[in-house]
TrEMBL record:
Keyword presence, Signal: yes
Protein name: Ferritin-like domain-containing protein
Lineage: Bacteria, Pseudomonadati, Myxococcota, Polyangia, Nannocystales
Domain of life of the organism encoding this protein: Bacteria
InterPro entries, sorted: Ferritin-like_SF, RNR-like
Biased composition range(s): Low complexity: 36-85, 92-130
Keyword terms of this UniProt record: Signal
């Protein structure tokens, strides 16, 4: 088993243990610097039609209707998923998952480091029939495009989602689109059942058809962003020393050995990370207020406050790294927080954000930082990455426990919210400007490896944890309360 697969297996076990759904013992991480740790963009697939037992297995509660028990390990996906895309080094990979009740036969991906790929927007669904993604059903739009569409300008579009306009004929027996409000789409039989979407606005009459703009695919991944009105906010960098951590950074000779262009690029990358960590302080502050607003137990509130302080430390550590590479002090300017408490504050909205930003974003961040530490060649820098990775794992566990608490309070209606929030498009980051070997040596994963790791993490950590959590709820509640 590669270091990446072993690390992800341990992460999954730890998160299941945090949810009270598995034991945390028996998980040994490979040593730092293991030369098998590098993920690749190579994409191949082997499928099976039955549950597969793999190392480090975790038992999932039996299906209440069939009594079947499914097991998960490093090589087994518990959720039925549809995955489309291209080579992760050159383009996007789409991984979506929708939680379904367990059955005795499950279509599973049985590879550790691979993703299923196709060259078009069509994919083979879990039943064997060809189905299509949401994006293939209409014209793609940018979030700003919604401001120009009459009837859509009030929708709170976000840079973290994708949008598409889908038009259908006026339904039989109706004279206008107004007669099929709230939407005229009905069932979309060719749509893969694993793709969830939300109607953003419509119906809008156009050329004898009824058009809707739909929102789908969360694609803001690593860490917990500070989103206000759909846009991630960070402070601007400035020259200051008070945000620099009193910690040992990479050896001066390690940094000095870089050419000026490489050093400047790494300084820019660490600065962007530091500003994101700084913004996460505000995100956790808002999260704490949301927990209080919904009567959360003190344990969750206390952990949210602790996570906020963790992010202060993370920001100081990464600002110190940015300063080491820049050769000058780097810190944050003022962070705009106006309107940060606006937008929907109901429990469903909070849960959807926690799933996307915590259960997905921070789980992926923990996995990426852990692997980056293994490929880094400076011991002090690797230690910093391991420290932040451990904190991000705790933050991910907090997110999963928050969803577990909310499901127990909000009931079955929140199951669909959780499933839809797990529809994630793993978009390729901007192309690397440095040689991959230089990036790995300095604690950065190349873009293609980040995408491949994220896809693998979704399959082997996030989706199995979601399935185990919702199956646990299914066991605790009558089956008639569960959505079809």
């Amino acid at each position: 088993m590669s270091a990446a697969s072993s690390s992800l297996a341990c992460l999954r076990v730890a998160l299941l243990h945090a949810l009270g759904l598995g034991a945390a013992a028996g998980c040994t991480r490979p040593p730092l610097g293991d030369d098998t740790a590098t993920a690749t963009g190579t994409t191949t697939t082997t499928t099976t039609t039955s549950a597969t037992t793999a190392p480090a297995t975790t038992s999932v509660p039996p299906d209440p209707t069939t009594g079947a028990t499914t097991t998960t390990g490093a090589a087994t996906t518990l959720l039925t998923t549809a995955t489309t895309g291209v080579d992760s080094s050159t383009g996007p990979v789409t991984t979506t998952g929708e939680v379904e009740p367990a059955t005795t036969t499950t279509t599973s991906s049985t590879t550790d480091d691979t993703t299923t790929t196709t060259s078009s927007d069509e994919t083979t669904g879990t039943t064997g029939a060809t189905c299509r993604s949401v994006s293939a059903l209409g014209d793609e739009l940018m979030p700003t495009d919604l401001l120009e569409i009459p009837g859509c300008e009030e929708f709170n579009a976000s840079d973290c989602f994708d949008y598409v306009r889908i038009c259908v004929p006026v339904p039989d027996g109706l004279q206008s689109c107004d007669e099929c409000v709230p939407d005229c789409l009905g069932d979309l039989p060719e749509l893969c059942k694993d793709f969830g979407f939300l109607v953003a606005c419509g119906p809008l009459p156009a050329d004898g058809q009824c058009c809707h703009v739909v929102q789908y695919s969360w694609n803001c991944q690593d860490g917990r962003p500070f989103l206000v009105e759909g846009t991630a906010r960070t402070a601007a960098p400035t020259r200051r020393r008070d945000w620099l951590a009193d910690a040992t950074g990479p050896a001066p000779a390690f940094v000095a050995g870089l050419d000026p262009a490489a050093r400047a690029e790494l300084a820019a990358l660490w600065t962007a990370d530091a500003l994101a960590e700084h913004a996460s302080v505000a995100s956790f502050a808002r999260f704490t207020l949301q927990l209080l607003a919904h009567g959360a137990p003190p344990g969750l509130v206390q952990e949210a406050c602790a996570a906020q302080l963790d992010e202060v430390v993370h920001a100081r550590l990464t600002f110190a790294l940015a300063s080491d590479y820049a050769g000058a002090p780097v810190g944050p300017g003022p962070l705009a927080t106006d309107d940060a408490l606006g937008g929907p504050g109901d429990l469903a909205a909070v849960v959807a954000a926690v799933v996307r930003e915590g259960c997905v974003g921070e789980t992926l961040a923990a996995a990426e930082l852990d692997l980056a530490a293994r490929t880094c060649e400076d011991p002090a820098l690797a230690a910093t990455l391991r420290r932040i990775a451990a904190d991000e794992q705790r933050h991910a566990a907090l997110a999963w426990r928050t969803v577990q608490w909310a499901l127990g309070r909000g009931g079955p209606a929140l199951r669909r919210v959780v499933a839809e929030a797990l529809a994630v498009r793993i978009a390729a980051p901007p192309p690397d400007r440095l040689d991959p070997a230089v990036l790995r040596r300095h604690g950065r994963l190349p873009a293609g490896e980040r995408v491949a790791l994220a896809a693998q993490c979704m399959r082997s950590v996030v989706l199995p944890c979601a399935r185990a959590l919702l199956d646990d709820l299914a066991v605790a509640r009558p089956t008639t309360d569960l959505p079809v």
